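Can't paste images in this forum, so I'm doing it all in text. The chain is below; anyone willing to post the predicted structure tokens underneath?
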Amino acid sequence: MKIIPCAALLALLMPGAALAQADRMPGLLWSPRPATPTPYRAPNRPHWKLADILAAHRGQNDWVQPIVRNPEQEADYISLGPGRKTGPQLYADDRLVFIVQNGAIKVSVDSDAPFTATRGFMVNIPARHLYTLETVSETPSLRFEIRQAGAPPLYPISETPVAAPGKVYVKVTGTPGPSKDRDTNPRYLDFWKDIAVSDKPHGGPFVRDDHFTANVIRGKGVLVPPDSEKGHFHVNNTEFWYIMEGKLGYKIEGVPYFEAGEGDIVTAVKGRWHRALNSPNAPMSTRIPINPRPPILHNFEATD
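Text version of the structure:
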């Protein structure tokens, strides 16, 4: 079996070998880690399998499955039945991002022309942009939605707010309003049309700001390294991944090696060694790493 050295593993784990090599910190560092591995607290778990989530909600059209909760971000799988529509709402200071797993969603944002997001669409709704989502497929739509932790939505005065724990809604006026030149990230990306039509590797951001980053990392399968190749850890932040296609092989500290497939969610809590590599059991695989910093510091084990 071919063993991947740490330098090569670094290049594979980050969204671009050039970035990994050029942006490396100079010299060796002492980096703090928890004395004992950071625990997983519900609903967080190393591996959420899409098949298990669907089985738990079999026969339901409208449901929410909490997946990720940490001090910076939260994420849910959300199913919305045929013809169902969310009320108009917005977020004050942070974006909303979702990935469509199944069905079709009509996305209306401010006065922009609506568009239909289907399987593989990644959608970005910046702060202070009023939006509605409507299932326009004959089957329920299913999306993986990521938000800033603890950020409740705001509603137009014509709407009745949905109760938020510990919050009381009051009438206000707000400034500044939405500005199209304030967010340079794309509104959406159609993965299957824009990226998967090629057999070439891909690495780059979908959205990036001071509190949110989501990259698209695609490539061919590689041989599985031995468990002695720990990968890296993050000092302050949890990282999680949505598997867009193929199979991803994961080794997380304290967790046996496993592979995750399309629609699965994998989480590495802060401070735990982890690695994510495209499995040799799929010709092409794509993961969407999500975390709250651009880019998050990767700490690799020193070899000298």
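The two ends are 24 Å apart (CA to CA). Residues 1-12, 15-21 have pLDDT under 50 and may be disordered.
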